[in-house]
Amino acid sequence: MKILILNGPNLNLLGKREPEIYGSKSFEDFFEELKSQFESHSMEYFQSNHEGALIDKLHAVGFSYDGIVFNPGAYTHTSIALRDAIAGIDAPVFEVHISNLAAREDFRQTSYVKDVCAGSINGMGLEGYVVAMEELIKTKPHNS
Asked: Which fold has domain 2-143?
């Protein structure tokens, strides 16, 4: 399978930003571990703080990749444009959040992307990406 790991705003600060919420490991270090764990699959990683760049990436891979694991960060709660981009592509998208959104601020209780995603995982730390990968692979076993 060919899978994109897509991260939104501020996730470039993992390992530095609020380690009590997000942990102390950089995503680049974690991505190397993830690639080792799923070495029979082709994986790409892309992160941007810019909504348009995330939309462009979804459009670029959404008809040729087997799936996308996406942490839209704060855009989860604000971006109808990201929702529409996910709804407009063929590749299944799994929404991931490192923190437990239900235990956070009221404005984080709404996800504009959840209803167009194949699944949603939050509150599991970086392990949520592993679970999302496993679920994504289960949805397309014929391509693995």
From this structure: Rossmann fold (3.40.50)
10 Å CB burial of residue 23 (0-12, 13-18, 19+) is: middle
pTM for the model: 0.90
HEC sequence for 24-60: CCCHHHHHHHHHHHCCCCEEEEEECCCHHHHHHHHHH
d(CA 11, CA 14): 5
> What average pLDDT values come out for the chain (144 residues) when binned by 10 residues?
96 83 83 95 97 98 97 93 98 92 74 93 93 91 46
Q: What is the largest CA-CA distance in the chain?
A: 40
Give the CA angle between residues 74, 139, 102 to the nearest 5°: 30
Residue positions annotated with a catalytic role = 22, 97
User: Would you kindly state where each structural domain of the chain is located, as residue ranges?
Assistant: 2-143
